């Protein structure tokens, strides 16, 4: 569906809307409260600057060129015989729980919910990666959708609006969705991961789009950071940038040779998160091609540096921040996997993510470790932050987080009081398991790893002995920690050697101090098998402004030859 131009998309989506709205009262009875007035604050704590959208969400897919290890969760897998088209909760005995009795309060205080499949483009792939609330409890989500059929390489940015009940708001855009194809005829690189609401009620999304699809060979896949703004009714705000789009070319990618000796694109701009600062300024976190040459050579660098941008409300660079509106960070000439950026109440910003390098021990092999850094409101590294880690740079935490040194990462980060909790994944710590496990850390306000969290400062979660991935984290009103991502339950028949079973959407609840909350599910986890036999995934979540609902977005996977669909899950907080 493209602005109503695809004859297959809008009609099918409208038929879906009619059916959904007719059944909405049954599907969502008790799933959320009304949108009564409540404190307009983040789902984290008062330490974050309050935003006019009344909530704070997460975002992203995984196209930054970082070293992610086992990362096969972003879309369709080659699976067999999907049957559970309506979705449901996994019955896997190793993780998850059963639906609580009607009318009862679940032990965890968080209802089960049922994933709602939202086929924005029934003829092609569509996926949701970012989410936020407005002050009235309406839900806004962003991601991308293919233009046309399942094998299309042209993608468009999407914004969807849902009522507090989860029903699409049909007064918004076309049947609740607006699509914007920034680069017509693109190379599947157009995707939005971040979404915020400015005080004017306008919606801003951030992502990437192709730099020049007419460029030769691999250079046609280079990307720029793009932002788009929409009016409250879903129409494109043509007064924002050029026809509603602002483009920032952080650097120009180059062609290099990969580890297999084959040509590869290096250094395409990436974007992960979008935040809101005072005066409706926009904070974008991503990465760009590093400048200069490799140490000891005259060869150009092919790795990426962290890039933190602060923009004025109109999307132009805020030249009072950093160097002409941008702060960059290099860690050991290694690829930057930039993730979240959190704006604090005083205007300072904490960025998070991870990188893989042997910079901490040049005699050892490269290892993947979390990164946190803090800059002042003017974009200078805060010399009082992270003063006890091994990395000798002002304001930057980079150190081994697991002993003995093992790979780990921080994919998402959120404020808990004045601390930061992270969610990601690393190599499994369970004997007999394979792949990756979800991992969570906590850091103090001063940028030190909090060893009182979990077990000696770390929490590992293993679903069923196969690869699991944490992708986002939110802190609940009672300070418990909710991890969002994907987990692989152990199938009745083990898969072929070296392969993983399909992924289910995963929610993991930890106590405020990082222990698994068994009242939520076995091992603190719930799995949602939205499409049996295919890989489903949750990517982002947010808490409603009245603190009575959690909204999660992601995708329902599909077997090869079929199409992924967007998913919305609502969980009541009792």
Describe this structure in words.
- By secondary structure, the protein is mainly beta.
- The protein has a domain at 9-275 and 286-345 and 355-385 and 530-572.
- It is 3% helix and 34% strand.
- It has one helix and 30 strands.
- It has a four-stranded antiparallel β-sheet, with no helix packed on it. Strands 2-3-4-5 form a four-stranded antiparallel β-sheet, with no helix packed on it.
- Strand 20 and strand 21 form a beta hairpin.
- The longest helix has 19 residues, at 9-27.
- The chain is globular.
- The chain starts with 8 loop residues before the first helix and ends with a strand.
- 55% of the residues are buried.
- Mean pLDDT is 85; it is low at 1-103.
Structural features:
574 residues, mainly beta, four-stranded antiparallel sheet, disordered N terminus
Tell me, what's the shape? globular
Q: Regarding quaternary structure, how should these chains be classified? A: single chain
Please provide the count of β strands: 30
Strand line-up in the sheet with most strands: 1-30-29-28
Q: Mind summarizing the main beta sheet?
A: 4 strands, antiparallel
Task: Quote the beta fraction.
Answer: 25-35%
SSE map:
Layout: H1 9-27, E1 116-118, E2 126-133, E3 139-146, E4 155-162, E5 177-180, E6 191-197, E7 203-210, E8 223-230, E9 245-248, E10 254-257, E11 263-266, E12 270-276, E13 282-289, E14 304-311, E15 326-329, E16 337-343, E17 349-357, E18 367-375, E19 396-398, E20 412-416, E21 419-427, E22 436-443, E23 459-461, E24 469-475, E25 481-487, E26 504-510, E27 525-528, E28 537-543, E29 549-556, E30 565-572
Antiparallel strand pairs: 1-30, 2-3, 3-4, 4-5, 6-7, 7-8, 8-9, 10-11, 12-13, 13-14, 14-15, 16-17, 17-18, 18-19, 20-21, 21-22, 22-23, 24-25, 25-26, 26-27, 28-29, 29-30
